[in-house]
Here is the input.
Amino acid sequence: MKFDDLDARMRVFETAHDHCALPGLYLVARLDGRGFTRLTKEVHAFEAPFDERMRDLMAQTVVHLMGCGFRVIYGYTQSDEISLLFHPAEGTYGRKLRKYTSILAGEASAQFSVLLGAIGVFDCRISQLPREQDVVDYFRWRQEDAGRNALNAHCYWHLRKQGHTVAQATGQVRGLRTSAKHDLLFEHGINFNNLPLWQKRGLGVYQESYEKEGFDPKRQQTILTQRRRWKTDYDLSLGADYESFIRQLLAQESE
Here is the structure.
């Protein structure tokens, strides 16, 4: 059998189940760390429940992903997860989802591992969202999840540091209402409302415009030019303001 014939016959098995996102759908990739609880609490001595070193590793990984060949207009991270919002017109690889998931998971795992100096692995999935409102709701969902996780994590690790076992701390936190969790922390000198916003809301990465000073040799004068750069936002807004922020990002890229 000639190679061209063999290649055509065998390539069917690779591509028969290719799924491509339809044009017009918004795409959001979500990456999750595999076994990161053990990695960050047992293998490496990161501070619990939150550590600025881990925060910075995740932020740098997000910046890397936003420049690895896809048109990503917003990156968001909380805990060990990353969400990436693609430009509405993104069409790389014919919008083949297996390409997106495999490349992003590989890039994230490689970058994080290099930064950490040890192996850290991510998986990846793609949400295909038909409406702008779905995009807004997606990021509102992940941010609300961040707040819930932060409250639970602070309560859990406070109890652990007080001598409770894993089972005792888990059971006690699970049985408390939100207000009771706040009270538990407040009784021990922790006001959850005063904790850093990035712990409760996650952080975002997006492009911002700025003026850069230069020199025009022809006119022999200083000039200002508009440039773009990645901004890591540790103080994201909340609720309706956050929804407006996401809509503004989409509107800017549609112009």
